[in-house]
């Protein structure tokens, strides 16, 4: 039996994230994925692509052009050797973080030295689907169903409280935790301000790669002029007296992300030094309607497995599905909010479902490399009541 080893993040890349029906809407998801694959591999020019042990790719919808194992399609479209295998995983919003977790286990068991991971989503191109009738030629009408986001074609046996909209789930959370509109809007405005500042400071220059044929060079949904006062004028989206608006929730988005993971010995293959070690992983599940706070337990488990506590953590990347669920997680962890999403979050940058986990992990490792801090946490909530978290250690800060 092979000896176990440790898994490291060596490089990360992503496309700019586009707004729904925006600049990336003309690009197929498999082409977006291929762009991220090539962007990551460009950071390791010494790597012979044939030495990639596997590709693990995340995608949430998989109902249209992203069907039939979009990870494998990305490998082929990127021009990698046909001998490079690939699989596609679906844990909804956590898909690409799940891909990284799976790859890290593959490396730790010495089944591969190098694994390419990532994820993609084109919410603009998610198709409408038509349920197939049980018998041919039904006499009645049929309804097209959008696959862009949320529940569809729901099993009647599911309890009604589980299948309410994602927005209603978070209205319930806001009510339960007494997290008001003002606090949510302030969090959202902070996301835009920090994202804009990070782009202007050049933080994303090394992380974001161009999509061939497009001149989009920056995430499309960042609004630098956003203020809490401006957000306060927006109408609630889910309840007439609610607190959640289009301004304090993440937008529908398109984009792809990728990372190169490897063992310590992979440094020779890649011609790179590792950036961060995968130190702990956590998965959690909760009642579906409470999905927003599921990262609390996932991150606590990951920290325990890494052998550290929140007191050791200097950087947190928490996917901002909604401002209210992000605030609830930060409150429950009892951490300094100022270490969370210092380069902006999904409310400003966008949330292409299958790509977001890869984005937060890549951003986290880049943040630690920039700051010199040692420990960081990437965490993401997942619809239908799940969450994932990963603890990383900056290898230069040991």
What are the SSEs and their pairings?
Blueprint (H helix, E strand, L loop, with lengths): L7 E7 L3 E2 L9 H13 L12 E5 L11 H8 L8 E4 L5 H14 L5 E9 L5 E2 L15 E2 L19 H12 L3 H21 L26 H4 L21 E10 L3 H5 L5 E10 L9 H12 L6 E6 L4 H11 L12 H4 L6 H16 L3 E8 L3 E9 L4
Parallel strand pairs: 3-4, 3-5, 10-11
Antiparallel strand pairs: 1-8, 1-9, 2-8, 5-8, 6-7, 9-12, 11-12
Helix pairs in contact: 1-2, 3-11
Relative helix content: 25-40%
CATH class of the domain at 8-123 and 251-392: Alpha Beta
Number of strands: 12
**Strand-residue fraction?**
15-25%
Largest sheet: 10 strands, mixed
Shape: globular
CATH topology of the domain at 8-123 and 251-392: Peroxisomal Thiolase, Chain A, domain 1
- In N-to-C order, the SSE pattern is EEHEHEHEEEHHHEHEHEHHHEE
Which residues form runs of ≥5 with pLDDT under 50?
Answer: none
**Oligomeric state:** single chain
Summed up, the helix count is 11
CATH-derived architecture of the domain at 8-123 and 251-392:
3-Layer(aba) Sandwich
Average pLDDT metric: 97
CATH homologous superfamily classification of the domain at 8-123 and 251-392 = Thiolase/Chalcone synthase
Radius of gyration: 20 Å
Cα-to-Cα separation, first versus last residue? 30 Å
Structural class per helix/strand content?
alpha+beta
Structure description:
The protein is of the alpha+beta class and 398 residues long. The protein is built from 11 helices and 12 strands. The chain has a domain of 258 residues: Thiolase/Chalcone synthase (Peroxisomal Thiolase, Chain A, domain 1), CATH 3.40.47.10. The strands form 2 sheets. Strands 1, 2, 3, 4, 5, 8, 9, 10, 11 and 12 form a 10-stranded mixed sheet that branches. The chain has a two-stranded antiparallel ribbon with strand order 6-7. The radius of gyration is 20 Å and the shape is globular.
């Amino acid at each position: 039996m092979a000896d176990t080893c440790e898994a490291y993040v060596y490089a990360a890349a992503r496309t700019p994230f586009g707004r729904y029906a925006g600049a990336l809407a003309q690009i197929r998801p498999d082409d977006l994925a291929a762009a991220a694959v090539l962007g990551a591999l460009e950071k390791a020019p010494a790597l012979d692509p044939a030495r990639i042990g596997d590709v693990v790719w995340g995608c949430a919808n998989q109902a249209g052009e992203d069907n039939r194992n979009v990870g494998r399609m990305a490998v082929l479209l990127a021009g990698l050797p046909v001998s490079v295998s690939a699989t596609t995983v679906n844990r909804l919003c956590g898909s690409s973080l799940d891909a990284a977790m799976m790859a890290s286990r593959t490396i730790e068991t010495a089944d591969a030295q190098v694994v390419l991971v990532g994820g993609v989503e084109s919410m603009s191109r998610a198709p409408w689907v038509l349920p197939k009738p049980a018998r041919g030629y039904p006499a009645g009408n049929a309804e097209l169903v959008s696959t862009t986001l949320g529940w569809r074609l729901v099993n009647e046996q599911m309890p009604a409280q589980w299948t309410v909209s994602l927005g209603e789930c978070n209205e319930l959370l806001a009510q339960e935790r007494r997290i008001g509109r003002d606090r949510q809007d302030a969090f959202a405005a902070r996301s835009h301000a920090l994202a804009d500042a990070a782009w202007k400071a050049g933080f994303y220059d090394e992380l974001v790669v161009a999509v061939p044929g497009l001149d989009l060079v920056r995430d499309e949904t960042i609004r630098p002029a956003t203020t809490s006062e401006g957000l306060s004028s927006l109408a609630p989206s889910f309840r007439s007296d609610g607190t959640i608006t289009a301004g304090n929730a993440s937008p529908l988005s398109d984009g792809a992300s990728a990372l190169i993971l490897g063992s310590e010995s992979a440094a020779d293959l890649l011609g790179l030094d590792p950036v961060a070690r995968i130190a702990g992983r956590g998965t959690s599940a909760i009642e579906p309607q409470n999905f927003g706070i599921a990262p609390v337990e996932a991150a606590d488990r990951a920290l325990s497995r890494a052998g550290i506590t929140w007191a050791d953590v200097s950087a947190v990347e928490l996917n901002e599905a909604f401002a209210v669920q992000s605030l609830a997680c930060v409150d429950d962890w009892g951490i300094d909010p100022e270490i969370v999403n210092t380069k902006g979050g999904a409310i400003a940058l966008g949330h292409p479902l299958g790509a977001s986990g890869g984005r937060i992990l890549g951003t986290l490792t880049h943040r630690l490399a920039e700051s010199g801090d040692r420990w960081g946490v990437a965490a993401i909530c997942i619809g239908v009541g799940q969450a994932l978290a990963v603890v990383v250690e900056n290898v230069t800060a040991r």
